[in-house]
Amino acid sequence: MNKSKAQEQCNHNNSRDFLEAPIPLAAKCAGANGVMVLRVIQGLFQGFLLPCMNGVLGRWLPPTELSYLTSIVFSGYQVGAIASTVITGYFSASHWGWPAAFYLFAALGFVWCIFWAFLSAETPATHPSITKEERKYIEHSLGQQDDHLIGKKSIPWSAILKSVPYWAIIIAAIGESWSTTFLSAELPSYLSYAIGLDIQEVQYGKW
Fold this sequence. Notes:
It is a multi-pass membrane protein. It is found in: Membrane. GO terms for molecular function: transmembrane transporter activity. InterPro entries: MFS, MFS_dom, MFS_Na/Anion_cotransporter, MFS_trans_sf. The model has no long low-confidence stretch (mean pLDDT about 80). The N and C termini lie far apart (about 55 Å). Helix 1 runs antiparallel to helix 2, helix 1 packs antiparallel against helix 3 and helix 4 (about 65-95) runs antiparallel to helix 5 (about 100-120). The chain is mainly α. The protein has two domains: about 20-145, no CATH class; about 155-205, no CATH class. The radius of gyration is 21 Å and the shape is globular. The chain is built from ten helices and no strands.
């Protein structure tokens, strides 16, 4: 049986969170190499989240609400980066130590998956508790597209791979993701070791 995009997203996120918890142990037993291996595997699982999310949003959001609701959904990445910096700084400066932050994020991910598994659905038609009025509004705004007919459409892979704008977007996305990840990962260390700020000052943005 084919899993829905909503289920796939939960599975990939669950796998990523499962690998979050053993990072402190990997750092202790295998050093930086062990952590890098786990982070690469995490990235492979996380790479499926955005395509799955786009698929789910495309089946749920009316065109008139698509822009701002999508912005709210994907702003979670930035909010999460800010919140995780504060939380990790707090745990690192506490008697629990930095490993506690990884255990917390792993636990939060599992809790999220539980809620997602019971409250989400791939389409309005398959949601168990949506009202008839809301379902009718969403399906009507999307043109009541038939999943069976959509599945028969062929994907123009050749045209996509030959598209210059397509590759420009990919290159720009890679550059943006790399720089953002690098800054979020290394900025606390830079502020601590190069600028000389205490980890608690870095945690609360006192710089």
